[in-house]
Every structure is written in C-alpha cells, then in structure tokens.
Amino acid sequence: MSKLGRYSADRKKITALTTTGTEIQVADCGTIFMLDGTDYSADVTHSLPHPNEAGKGWWCKFIVKTAVLDAGGDDCNIKIRGVGVSTFVDDLLLLQIHETAGAAGLTDVDADFILVKGETVGGSQLEFVCDGNKYYLLGSVTADGAVTVDT
Description:
Structural class: mainly beta
Strand order of the largest sheet: 1-2-4-9-10-6-7
Largest sheet: 7 strands, mixed
Low-confidence stretches: none
Mean pLDDT: 84
C-alpha cells in the first residue's frame, strides 16, 4: 500500500516571515521560513521555542527569499525563548556556518542568538535541529559576515 500526501512526496511546509516578529511554535516543526525583509523599517526578531519545549527532533530552516534581505540594512534576529515565556535565554546554540566567499565561517558552542544582516543575499540558509537540550545550527551564506552570532 502506498503512502499518500505531503509526506510521501516530501513536500515541505513553507511560511513567509516579513516585517513582523514571530514567536515560532512547537507545532511549526519542519517548517521552512522564507525571510523577506523587503519592507523592514527596523530590525525584526523571530524566536524559537525553548529546546525543552521543542523536544528531540524538532527542526526548522530559514532561507533568505529576496535578492537581498533588506536593502535598507535592517537585520533579522533569531533568538530562543525561555521555558513558557517570551523572554530570551542564553547559550543554547551550537553552530557551524559556512561562508561561501572563502572565509573560514563561524563556529560557536554557546551562542546566544543569530543575527542575519540586511545585506544577506537570497539563497542564504540556516537550519536548526533540536536534541531537547540545545539547538544545533548548520548554515550556508553567500557573503562573509552576512550572519553573525552573539555570545
């Protein structure tokens, strides 16, 4: 008996994130978030659920949709919320980001949040995977310094 629907076709959930900050929920597991900062008028913050709430196997991906995230230079922050609250917590990201322009890239074992700069070009992507305690981040960007971390 064959499977039907999105899972057998490996179709992904796609959601656009634009000028309003978003609290990404546990139910958003498996979503690809398309970042479109065309009309940013200030920096925007999107937040992930706390790893304890997200649980093992939770994942999402962010892809810059437009040619440049925001020509005006406003940035996109990706932070992690505390348990059951909207405040942010520290030291829950382990990351490796490859910068295709030739730099060594970014690595960090206890990052606090990710900053996707407004100058980041389309196709740059960040994928978050959770083990229930911490997020692991793998990314690829097309320019050195397009993504930075705060530790």
